[in-house]
């Protein structure tokens, strides 16, 4: 199933099960992020990507620029394993991983979650690529992606059992600064070749479009 269809299904299911006031809050947050989109899109094609060095889900430190090492890197930032849209994207990327590797590229995903939660995510979804823990969000800030979750939405998440301070291993206030989901394709020299910032976090690019870009078959969407 194409990722776009999965994302629509997740949103439709949420609309059926979520209280209307909660759905309205999420829509307001997305509208605000969309209106502020220019704030999060400052790293554009042609720009040099900041390096990062973070622990992966197995506890090994991974350096972006060492990983590049004459190969392109597909770099994803996502909110966490509690986000169904993020999980759908990562599963879809796993299905595309053989094509990504055949094109000579690496795939790296980054979230603010502790490595233990990333490991659980990898095991449950059979993910075979590096999932890095950006504790405190320094790497996401370097890419200009961090936003603050409004208090009203925090209350809803907490009431539904989401404790980001525990999941992200950071003080409560800091834990509620999340990355806007983003997808970058970096050249072997670390130059941004493609950048997509999903201020509407219910949307993500179709993996096949990224594969096509890797293979020079046309633009990604």
Automatic annotation (TrEMBL):
A Pfam family that this protein carries is AhpC-TSA
User: Which intervals hold domain Thioredoxin?
Assistant: 43-220
For this protein, what is the EC number? 1.11.1.24
Which top EC class is given?
Answer: oxidoreductase
Q: Has UniProt tagged this entry with the keyword Transmembrane?
A: no
Instruction: Keywords in alphabetical order, please.
Output: Antioxidant, Disulfide bond, Oxidoreductase, Peroxidase, Redox-active center
Which reaction is catalysed here? a hydroperoxide + [thioredoxin]-dithiol = an alcohol + [thioredoxin]-disulfide + H2O
Q: Which family does it belong to?
A: Belongs to the peroxiredoxin family. BCP/PrxQ subfamily.
Q: What does this protein do?
A: Thiol-specific peroxidase that catalyzes the reduction of hydrogen peroxide and organic hydroperoxides to water and alcohols, respectively. Plays a role in cell protection against oxidative stress by detoxifying peroxides and as sensor of hydrogen peroxide-mediated signaling events.
Its protein name is thioredoxin-dependent peroxiredoxin
